[in-house]
Amino acid sequence: MRFQSLRVLLMFSISNPCIEFVHAQSHTDVKKLHTDMFTDYKKEVLPTADQSKPLVIGVTFFMASFNSFNEVEETISLTAAVGMNWTDPALKWNPTLYGNLYGTIINPKDLWLPQLFLINRVDSMDPVGDDTMFFPTIIYTGEVIYSPGGILKAKCPTDISKFPFDSQTCTLQLMPWGFIQANLLLTSNFDKAQLDFFSQHSDWNLLEYSISIVNESLGYSVLNVKLTFEREPLYFAVMIILPTLLFSLLNPLVFVFTSRIWRTSVIIDDNFTVIRHIFNTCVSFDSCVFKSYVRSVNCHDRHHLYQRCNRNWFHNKCKLFLSQQ
Q: What is the pTM of this model?
């Protein structure tokens, strides 16, 4: 029951960041509450009554949209919010003394707020939601609800062994960088990401969205969000598989064409070049499938493979990888 009520409050704070929980229409009560709460408040101090014990923060992961998955760069991009709740003993009040005011919105610059970092992020090392101001909600019991969010772009290894009938699994690793478990401890409010605001992607289907907390041996508390997406294969089946099969059937005809119609064989070869270019833009040469293939061939075959790279139908990264083997 507590988690369900918390879920409502988290969703409320995300979708209504400027509404106050006021049961009496008195602006004076709100100003008086803010003045009384923050007269001696120090946002630099960790909000725990017993400083020898860690601050426990409950976390809820909200997925808003799956933006893209780049097989070549091996990155995933999604829009999400991280709802956090904790109890600050310095922010408790008696609602009857403030016109039955049970909750209020606070400027984030005036409050101690935790910062979660996506440690496998590829574009920056900034906290989640650092580029936008998200207003926290405070309940009269001292419970603080804070839900920063943004576009998260993380590293995700690619597995194309079943392309285009493949599925990709990515893990987002979020942690309060700089706070060890003795100071701050993360707990998960739910065992799955919440999809209340999720917009489905046309090319990928979301299969798994589990959440777990891992207490690292180095002393950090890490939130792992495991996401599994399944590709919609129709586009690639029409654009790659079907043309490749048709060209494979036409390929033997090159040997029976006379010199008068030599242009036909050239056209077929050009068509294969187009297919190779499409494959080059869809497949990462850092993937385990390509690496396993290169390591399995002998030196003689690898020499021919390197020559093919020089024909510009492979990515430049192909030649770089071969030179390192």
A: 0.69
